[in-house]
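for the recovery benchmark. tokens below, seq after
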């Protein structure tokens, strides 16, 4: 073995690692600045609002266990009930979702199409039905929920304030119904809390665009209407249709707002198999969005703007580009370089005076540093959102420790997302809880036994 060549090769790998690590920090150091912003500034909450007519959209597939709770929480809103119409798309259901929704007072449309599967197709189907059955001015805006969600009583009232302030798309504060179940549900919940408090809240303070995350968001009719007659169309069908929707609006100059006073709760997976499938879809969906819009986002970063408000779109394009792709690629590249370096060091272990510990550190060191960063994010988020995390004190502390482990599982998922065949898979929900049940941290109240992994 040519020791001189191997030594030079390992030195090159170390330099590549430094370059990639530096690039990672350059791309994402602004998110640490976001933490500082969120700790010391809060988005201004509009005090006044004007009444608007809202259509609430719920896409549901075999959700008979939870759909009633969501509809009840919509009916119990402080916002005038005559300005809210709740729609349920019973999408390829084989249970009593449609019947329960109708009995609860929702307008129900049944869709059976096993060739076009996913929330995007269900929402587009609803838009077609509204075009047929309702006048063009029936609704000013639409609010999207998943069937397992439940809302604080002032949710729509608070969302209307931000909408009335001029935001055509508004996202909200996402919390969890089952934070205390296990390390998986807590990992999801802590990440979404961090996203709301330390990403979207900071974006709102700085006047740039926020990001929609799956559920709990509002959009103005104009963002989905086409033609002179204002025909409604929802043309977002990628695996992560929420990120696609956000990206298209940012590229169009629409600023996505955030309403931190509008709280809702959803049920997180507790089985790793379910979590794997869901996050694999997210990973592949991010790749799809970047393939379709990545170049446009990069061009948007450098496009000249005529005003300060327009220039914020440049940063929004940068922020969204960083959100949907480079972290995954850069992390995998750094990991690959570290593994090659470890193998090379082991091959020359005794000949160049290296040690086994040094070889192992090449791969373990970056993982420990990443875990330390996630641990710090977990601590900060848990402390500041302590009152909003509805579980016991010891579980709050325990799940700070397990949060980095949850995030570490994204590594194999990220690798698999490049190669695996991914499609929509239904996530079963069983937490039929009231708002009081959630806030008491009593996960047993009203609970249906969740299905076991096959």
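predicted aa per position
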């Amino acid at each position: 073995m040519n020791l001189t060549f191997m030594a030079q090769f390992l030195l090159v790998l170390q330099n590549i690692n430094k370059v990639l690590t530096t690039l990672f920090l350059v791309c994402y150091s602004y998110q640490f600045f976001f933490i500082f912003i969120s700790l010391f500034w809060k988005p201004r909450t509009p005090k006044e609002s004007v009444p608007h007519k809202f259509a609430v959209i719920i896409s549901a597939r075999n959700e008979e266990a939870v759909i009633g709770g969501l509809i009840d929480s919509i009916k119990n809103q402080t916002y005038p009930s005559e300005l809210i119409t709740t729609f349920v798309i019973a999408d390829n259901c084989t249970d009593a979702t449609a019947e329960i929704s109708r009995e609860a007072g929702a307008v129900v449309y049944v869709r059976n199409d096993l060739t076009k599967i996913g929330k995007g197709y269900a929402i587009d189907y609803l838009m077609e039905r509204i075009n047929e059955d309702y006048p063009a001015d029936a609704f000013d805006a639409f609010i999207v929920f998943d069937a397992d969600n439940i809302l604080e009583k002032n949710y729509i009232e608070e969302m209307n304030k931000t909408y009335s302030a001029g935001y055509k798309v508004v996202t909200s504060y996402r919390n969890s119904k089952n934070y205390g179940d296990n390390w998986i549900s807590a990992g999801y919940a802590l990440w979404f809390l961090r996203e709301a408090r330390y990403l979207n809240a900071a974006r709102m303070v700085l006047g740039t665009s926020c990001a929609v995350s799956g559920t709990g968001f509002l959009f103005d009719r104009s963002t989905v209407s086409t033609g002179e007659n204002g025909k409604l169309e929802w043309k977002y069908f990628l695996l992560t249709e929420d990120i696609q929707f956000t990206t298209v609006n940012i590229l169009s100059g629409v600023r996505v707002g955030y309403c931190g006073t509008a709280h809702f709760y959803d049920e997180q997976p507790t089985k790793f198999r379910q979590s794997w499938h869901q996050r694999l879809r997210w990973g592949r969906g991010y790749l799809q969005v970047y393939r379709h819009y990545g170049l446009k986002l990069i061009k948007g970063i450098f496009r000249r703007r005529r005003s300060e408000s327009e220039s914020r779109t440049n940063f929004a394009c940068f922020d969204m580009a960083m959100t949907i792709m480079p972290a995954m690629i850069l992390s995998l590249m750094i990991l690959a370089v570290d593994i090659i370096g470890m193998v090379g060091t082991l091959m020359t272990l005794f000949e160049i005076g290296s040690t086994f510990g040094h070889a192992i550190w090449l791969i373990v060191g970056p993982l420990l540093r990443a875990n330390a960063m996630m641990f710090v994010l977990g601590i900060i988020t848990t402390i500041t959102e302590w009152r909003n995390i509805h579980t016991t004190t010891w579980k709050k502390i325990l799940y700070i420790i397990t949060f980095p482990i949850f995030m570490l599982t994204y590594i194999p998922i990220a690798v698999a997302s490049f190669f695996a065949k991914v499609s929509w898979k239904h996530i079963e929900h069983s937490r039929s809880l009231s708002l009081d049940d959630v806030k008491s941290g009593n996960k047993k109240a009203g609970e249906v036994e969740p299905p076991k992994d096959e």
